[in-house]
Amino acid sequence: MELISRESARLNRFVSDLLNYSRERDLALETLSVDDELASVGELLSRHPRRPEGAQVVIRRGDDDASMRGDREQLRQVWLNLAINAFEAMSSSSRLVVRQRADGGRVVIEFEDTGTGIAVDDLPRVGQPFFTTKQGGTGLGLTIASRIVERHGGTLTVESAPGRGTIVRVGLPVEAAQVARAA
Hints:
alpha+beta, 5-stranded mixed beta sheet
């Protein structure tokens, strides 16, 4: 029964990811405080079941509290996907730091982990639909996150080295309203 339950949950995640990938809903834009959103996600991550026991989650506020127009639920999905990817590469002595900083007319949100890093040969394929190195993974989490960020007029980049961890950077316009409506 445990095996059936576990496999059913895995298949449910796959079907949900596939549906999220294949059909997009309209963005429900609102003004968001980046620091407040990341603090809220930080509370969730500190108790998340996929966080390795003993691993630290640190949220660093920006120098100025940037505001942007975005879809709260879809951006939360991005933050959770990035954090879960980090958790899956981390051990109990690892650390995930989430921070934001201003960069001209953009806000950059970084997820930096001290996990295992990504193999050099795999790095160019990261974010491609259905590419995964995780057992039971769908290969759609980062693809969906990337698409959501692009719909908000932003960019998502990955920097990694084996044994040194990974930094995922999400750059979003501080005022994304016009870009998001056009997507």
